[in-house]
């Protein structure tokens, strides 16, 4: 692009900021952490999108996870186009909702019944209400750096000690709403034991990301994940595994299959909607039967089980079950990670990576972090330079160092090699 050409992204950003807070409908899109002008997307196809200047980018966000097949997959497009012609929304049950529920249950062995909703936030919020309603208890445990949507009770950071209440991370969240949320450090076994010793009999649930993708990419140690399950069972608390990001993404059967830990409730989103507003929560029949109209836990939605969204989700789930899908996806992700690691090593840049299936993280440090505090030790200024270097080279990664990245089935080896070549250039300027 020539410098004399007006930047259409900038023009749109200025216009957007006059009518939408920060110019965006979800904060991270505003590029606040990294600075610069957000790219306004015009269209997307396969592994690419084009911005308002008609610049092409290799997309490693994929709508923050849903686009596992890439943009505009023909089978998904066909299913959605057919569904649109039949009607947008009925507010009455459809056969397609049963099909999607059956498909989810077939893929996720820990899920015996499932309720469809429209966003991960709604699914996470409803799962917490269900856990509280089913156990008759109020207190919940979450982990610092894990995100489960923006329900009030979950927008909490750690207090000064385990016996103290957590503090809201958002204005507008009353103290009374977060006082039952205990926030613990991810991968801290001693703290976990202590919390159960203190609060075990009052705990409705523990909610966790089975691979934390909202603090870049942090795995639980096997001992930590196992111990959460054991303690929940011992104390009569439910384990909620939030697979909104990891489900159908890191492996067909979710991160719970990688960890070998069975939750009582699973929260799902992103891939199950294939890019349409669709999410779900499901679990053991005995727990799910507490949901209205069977039980006393209220939960509802005008657009829940939307016919176009369910068509999109079903078509996506059918594609990802084809033989060899995850092997190919993992191989691509690993090719990218190995290439980036070699390029960083050659440049003498501190760097490490981790990945599972089509989800990855990389850190500008020598050792993989274990928790949020360690992730946040990343050199932010260096990350921002890396981000903008990649962006200028036509590679789009998340505009914040605490976000995971995603490879889709549409990314080719050539896309990945081009990404590595762009990164190698940028790394040389950073070391
Ligand atoms: N849980 C997890 C693990 C997530 O990553 C997200 C969103 N990134 C959510 C819940 C919330 O989902 P949504 O943005 O659809 O409300």
From TrEMBL:
Annotated compartments: Cytoplasm
GO cellular component annotations of the record: cytoplasm
Keyword terms, alphabetized: Cytoplasm, Isomerase, Porphyrin biosynthesis, Pyridoxal phosphate
Gene designation: hemL
One GO BP annotation of this record: protoporphyrinogen IX biosynthetic process
Main location: cytoplasm
Pathways per UniProt: Porphyrin-containing compound metabolism; protoporphyrin-IX biosynthesis; 5-aminolevulinate from L-glutamyl-tRNA(Glu): step 2/2
Highest taxon above the source species: Bacteria
Gene3D superfamilies reported in the protein's UniProt record: Aspartate Aminotransferase, domain 1, Type I PLP-dependent aspartate aminotransferase-like (Major domain)
Record field: catalytic activity: (S)-4-amino-5-oxopentanoate = 5-aminolevulinate
Enzyme class: isomerase
Self-association state and partner proteins as the record states: Homodimer.
Name of the protein in its database record: Glutamate-1-semialdehyde 2,1-aminomutase
Modified residues annotated as N6-(pyridoxal phosphate)lysine in this record: 270
Family of the protein in this entry: Belongs to the class-III pyridoxal-phosphate-dependent aminotransferase family. HemL subfamily.
EC number: 5.4.3.8
PROSITE patterns assigned: AA_TRANSFER_CLASS_3 (PS00600)
Source organism per UniProt: Brachymonas denitrificans DSM 15123
Cofactor(s), by name: pyridoxal 5'-phosphate
Pfam families assigned to the protein according to its UniProt record, in alphabetical order: Aminotran_3
GO molecular function: glutamate-1-semialdehyde 2,1-aminomutase activity; pyridoxal phosphate binding; transaminase activity
Annotated InterPro entries: 4pyrrol_synth_GluAld_NH2Trfase (IPR004639), Aminotrans_3 (IPR005814), Aminotrans_3_PPA_site (IPR049704), PyrdxlP-dep_Trfase (IPR015424), PyrdxlP-dep_Trfase_major (IPR015421), PyrdxlP-dep_Trfase_small (IPR015422)
């Amino acid at each position: 692009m020539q410098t004399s050409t007006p930047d259409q992204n900038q023009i749109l950003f200025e216009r957007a900021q006059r009518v939408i807070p920060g110019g965006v409908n979800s904060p991270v899109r505003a590029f606040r952490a990294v600075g610069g002008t957000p790219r306004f997307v015009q269209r997307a196809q396969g592994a690419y999108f084009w911005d308002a200047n008609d610049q092409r980018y290799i997309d490693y966000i994929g709508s923050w996870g849903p686009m596992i097949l890439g943009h505009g997959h023909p089978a998904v497009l066909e299913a959605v186009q057919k569904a649109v012609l039949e009607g947008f929304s009925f507010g009455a049950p459809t056969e397609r909702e049963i099909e999607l529920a059956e498909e989810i249950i077939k893929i996720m062995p820990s899920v015996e019944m499932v309720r469809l909703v429209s966003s991960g936030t709604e699914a996470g919020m409803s799962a917490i209400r269900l856990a509280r309603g089913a156990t008759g208890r109020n207190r919940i445990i979450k982990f610092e750096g894990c995100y489960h949507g923006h329900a009030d009770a979950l927008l909490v950071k750690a207090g000064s000690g385990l016996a103290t209440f957590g503090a809201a991370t958002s204005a507008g969240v009353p103290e009374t709403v977060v006082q039952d949320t205990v926030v613990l450090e991810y991968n801290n076994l001693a703290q976990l034991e202590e919390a159960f010793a203190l609060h075990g009999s009052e705990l409705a649930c523990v909610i966790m990301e089975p691979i934390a993708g909202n603090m870049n990419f942090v795995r639980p140690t096997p001992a930590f994940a196992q111990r959460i399950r054991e303690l929940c069972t011992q104390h009569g608390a439910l384990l909620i595994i939030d697979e909104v990001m990891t489900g159908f993404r890191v492996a067909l059967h979710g991160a719970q299959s990688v960890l070998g830990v069975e939750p009582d409730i699973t929260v799902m989103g992103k891939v199950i909607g294939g890019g349409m507003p669709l999410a779900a929560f499901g679990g053991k029949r005995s727990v799910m039967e507490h949901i209205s109209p069977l039980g006393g836990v209220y939960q509802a939605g005008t657009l829940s089980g939307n016919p176009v969204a369910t068509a999109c989700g079903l078509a996506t789930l059918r594609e990802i079950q084809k033989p060899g899908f995850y092997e190919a996806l993992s191989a691509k992700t690993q090719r990218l990670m190995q290439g980036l690691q070699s390029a960083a090593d050659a440049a003498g840049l501190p760097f490490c990576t981790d990945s599972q299936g089509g989800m990855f993280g990389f850190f500008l440090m020598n050792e993989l972090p274990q928790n949020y505090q360690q992730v946040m030790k990343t050199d932010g200024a260096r990350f921002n330079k890396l981000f903008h270097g990649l962006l200028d080279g036509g590679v789009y990664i998340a505009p914040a160092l605490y976000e995971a990245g995603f490879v889709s089935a549409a990314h080719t080896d050539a896309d990945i090699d081009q990404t590595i070549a762009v990164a190698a250039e940028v790394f040389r300027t950073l070391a």
